[in-house]
Design a protein that fits this description.
Structural class: mainly beta
CATH topology: Immunoglobulin-like
Number of helices: 0
Strand order of the largest sheet: 4-3-6-7
CATH architecture: Sandwich
Radius of gyration: 15 Å
Strand content: over 45%
CATH superfamily: Immunoglobulins
Shape: elongated
C-alpha cells in the first residue's frame, strides 16, 4: 500500500479550502474475493487536523469510507499557515501529510 497522502490548501478571503487524497484500500471485511473468501477488514478509523500545531478537527471514520478517499474541508486560515493531517487505520498504521496554506 502506498502511504503517500496528498494534501493542498488554498486561502481565499481568510478561509482556506483543503483537499486531501489518502491512498488506502478501505476494506470493510464483508466483501469476498474471487474464491469466495472474506477479504480482511482494513479501513481508516480516525482523521485529525492541526493548524500551526493547534487542533483543528478530529473525525471518526469507519467501514463505509471508500477506497482511496478524498476529503475536503474549509477553515479560517492565512497564507503561510501550516496544515497537518494525520490518519489512523484499524491495523494501527498512521499516515500523515503537511502543507503550507497558499
Amino acid at each position: 500500500m502506498n502511504s503517500a497522502v496528498r494534501i493542498v490548501a488554498v486561502e481565499n478571503g481568510g478561509v482556506a479550502t483543503a483537499k486531501v487524497i489518502v491512498p488506502h484500500p478501505n476494506e470493510s471485511g464483508k466483501r469476498k474475493d474471487e474464491q469466495g473468501n472474506l477479504i480482511p477488514a482494513h479501513f481508516i478509523t480516525e482523521a485529525e487536523g492541526a493548524l500551526n500545531g493547534s487542533e483543528l478537527f478530529v473525525m471518526q471514520l469507519g467501514l463505509s469510507v471508500s477506497k482511496n478517499p478524498f476529503l475536503q474541508f474549509r477553515f479560517k486560515a492565512a497564507k503561510g499557515d501550516t496544515l497537518k493531517v494525520r490518519l489512523k487505520d484499524n491495523r494501527q498504521n498512521s499516515f500523515e501529510a503537511e502543507t503550507v496554506v497558499k
